[in-house]
Structure formats: C-alpha cells, structure tokens
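Revision sheet: structure tokens.
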Amino acid sequence: MRPGTLPAWIGFPLGAIDDLVSGQPFGSAILLWSIALLAFEWFESRFPWRGFLQDWLASAIACGSYVLLAAFISGAVLSLPILAAIVPQLLLSMALYPIVAAMVAALDRIRLIRIKEIR
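Predicted:
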C-alpha cells in the first residue's frame, strides 16, 4: 500500500469494529490497532528504502505481536491448548502476506488507471 494512505487516527475506528466483531474487551483492539499503525508509520519513516522481505518480516512481527497481545488482553487463562490454537492463526496470517500484498498492489494499480479524461 502506498505510504500515507491510512492516517494514524484510523486505528480507533478499525479497532472499535474489531472489538465489536471479535468480542474482545472494548478498547483492546483500539489500543493494539493504534500501536500497530504508529509502529508502521515509524518503520516507514525510519526505513524508506526497503524490500519485500523487510515488509514481510515487519508484517509477521506485527501479526504475531497483535495475536499474542490480544490473547493476553482477552482475560482468558493462557494454557497450552489455547496457545496451540493460536499457532495456526499465526502461521496462516504470516504465510498469507504475499497474497494479500499482491491483491492490494493490484487494487492500487486499478485505482490509478485513468479511465476517461474530462475536459
């Protein structure tokens, strides 16, 4: 996605929707989305010339941190079966990054196509 597409404040409404849909305590996803977006803003400003692997690593760290922190904030007792249930979600979210990145890039290319010039 192009840098600057999502403003930093968008973490609040996206996190609120995430909280309402997922059933987590209200405010947990708002906090985590806001932290994630601020971290990505910092990462983009710190490393402007990065490649696909750096983006994949950053998203893997963000997804892993988000899922583990959400499980911790949820108030559930973190036992081995719960952690074992989280592992497939972590692996799938990390493995799907190239597919999602390609879809977002395709949509961005479609968005930039000039269809008709108005005079």
